[in-house]
Write a structure and sequence with these properties.
This protein is α/β, with parallel strands linked by helices. It has one domain: Aldolase class I (TIM Barrel, Alpha-Beta Barrel), CATH 3.20.20. Helices cover 21% and strands 19% of the residues. It holds the Pfam family Glyco_hydro_114. InterPro entries: Aldolase_TIM (IPR013785), GH (IPR017853), GH114_TIM-barrel (IPR004352).
């Protein structure tokens, strides 16, 4: 299943566009992913803080390919086992736990625990609906349990997704302040468990949230001419993990390398295939 999340208003159209450019070769300097980075080796009891340029692999579909030479793996928190996380650690990798924290997914094992009143409109993907993030008293224990799962499986960090509901048609009158409050709650819950936490997209709120998050995850900032807006993260010594789907690497690698991003070209299904800068 495709679990990619994109910018507001851009969720369905890209799936209709032929992926004519995905075969383009990456240009610029050679790939330096030949071995795990020294900083990627887990240190017990210390929260991970990835720095600019730390390269990564993002796989949310298909059988997990642990042979990809990248020091950081971002994988599905429910579908990835404790044993797989441990194996990645033994290979010197850091591992990020992908979770949807702003939308309900009917296919998750805890789906029945979400009260119906929390569920809003569909978010553009089958079986998924926005959550009423104002109702933190009900959502906090549900999200805390998910983050407990990430911690107990041995993940180093979490990528919380769908964290920009206020900018979408959710069925709830969400405000920017509601979103800031909820995003900070998720960040606190993650850090309380020793997990690093990334801000997914939500470019408009980066100035307010850069201090609350340890890294950023972004989709398609080059395509939409938005990459400069992520500069506060690299200026603070924090990684920006970035992907493009429709642009050939020759169109973005030089720019994002100068910005200190860890960029790569991926296919929309977010399988194992990647073309790093």
């Amino acid at each position: 299943m495709n679990r990619r999340r994109t910018r507001p208003g851009r969720r369905l159209l890209p799936l209709l566009v032929p992926l004519l450019l995905l075969a383009a070769a990456c240009t610029g300097q050679p790939d330096d992913d030949a071995a795990p980075d020294r900083e990627a080796v887990p240190v017990p009891g210390e929260r991970w803080r990835p720095g600019p340029g730390t390269s990564w692999q993002w796989q949310l579909s298909g059988r997990l390919d642990t042979s990809v030479e990248a020091p950081v793996y971002d994988v599905d928190g429910f579908d990835t086992s404790r044993e797989q996380v441990a194996a990645l650690h033994r290979a010197g990798r850091r591992v990020i736990c992908y979770l949807s924290t702003g939308a309900w997914e009917e296919f998750r094992p805890d789906a029945a625990k979400f009260p119906a009143a929390l569920l809003g409109r569909g978010n553009g993907w089958e079986g998924e609906r926005w959550l009423d993030i104002r109702r933190t008293a009900e959502l906090e224990p549900l999200m805390a349990a998910r983050l407990d799962m990430c911690r107990d499986k041995g993940f180093d960090a979490v990528e919380p997704d769908n964290m920009d509901g206020y900018a979408n048609t959710t069925g709830f009158p969400l405000t920017a302040e509601d979103q800031l409050r909820y995003n900070r709650l998720i960040a606190r819950l993650a850090r309380d468990r020793g997990l690093a936490v990334g801000l997914k997209n939500d470019l408009d709120q980066i100035p307010q949230l850069v201090g609350d998050f340890d890294f950023a995850v972004n989709e398609q900032c080059a395509q939409y001419d938005e990459c400069e807006r992520l500069a506060p993260f690299t200026a603070a010594g924090k990684a920006v993990f970035h992907v493009e789907y429709e642009l050939p690497a020759s169109r973005f690698c030089a720019q994002t390398r100068k910005l200190g991003f860890a960029s790569m070209q991926k296919k929309y299904d977010l399988g194992a295939w990647r073309k790093p800068c």
